[in-house]
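Below is the record:
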Amino acid sequence: MKKQTKLVVIVITVLVIGITFFYPRMDTFLTKKESAESAGGAASQQRSGGGQGLPVNVIEARYETFENSLNVTGTLIPNEMVNLRPEVAGLVTRIDFREGEFVKKGTPLVYLRDDELRAQFDRLNYTKKLYESQENRQKQLLEREAISQEEYDIALNQFNTNLADLRLIEAQLDKTVIVAPFDGVLGLREVSVGGVIGSADIITTIVNIDPIKIEFSIPERYANEVKVGSPVYFRSNVSTEEAVARVYAIEPNIDINTRTLKIRAESPNKNRTFLPGMFARVRLVLNVEDNAILVPSESVIPELSGYKVIVVNDGKAESRVVTIGKRTDRSVQLLSGVKPGEQVLTTGILQAREGMPLQVTQIN
């Protein structure tokens, strides 16, 4: 009896311990089992095709106008610009301009001392009258055969020499007045009244900036695609909007150091928005295609044999081999492989597999 009693006590003790340990955790075990069954059922449903498919964004292919543009950098240069210097040395007696003002062509700007030249001019002018009258008298006498031809020629030569000396003094007098060579804006003054200046001294700078010119270079492979009159679009740091210019000159040779072709274009600048020396971002339109199919660059998948895109066909993914044309910084032209109206994936490209169900969430 004692052995049976001990066995019963041991069994009861084990049952009590087991109930105490497992009963509080029974709900947790049941919950995990139900979750596993639910997950298994969902996975089975997805494998059977009952899911909504991979969510993707697409773009609908259609014909667009495609501008094949080349983006380069350039520099704004003036239409005309010179440093004004005197042709002869002299004392500055008068300055007739203000710094930064606009002047017309031929406007007198600086006067140099011309007293001695004026005196020489007056003397020659008086002598001119004497030689002119002598030439007339000698001509009348020659007609009457009262003098020889040689005597008349001497008088005529004196008169012509006097006229030449007058023109020489007039030219020297013109050099004492420095005038504006063209319409433009004057820079800062570098001389003062009373100073003696020579041909190496700069008086001021005159700049014509209407129209403004744009100088830039393009790679040699585009040399045959640019013509005089081609449109050029540019903007600088002072303007967010693009201005339009026209190519007016093309360098006839390629720079052997950079393998580029230098081009110049000009644009109206009546408001003087653009100034010489400014940095310019230039967009040169090489050609325009009216019926081009464009897709984003991220839609095109490079392969060893070429390129492909993923299109939506009956709600499923389909790989399509394409032939690409020209590129921009954002788009790629498709020459074949995709027709207008078809939807090309722009997201989910790496996750999509052939025949996988797709859910189109956004059409651009």
Notes: The mean pLDDT is 85. The chain has three domains: 54-64+291-363, 70-79+207-289, 85-204. Helices lie at 2-22, 26-47, 115-143, 149-174. The domain at 70-79+207-289 is CATH 2.40.30.170 (Elongation Factor Tu (Ef-tu); domain 3).
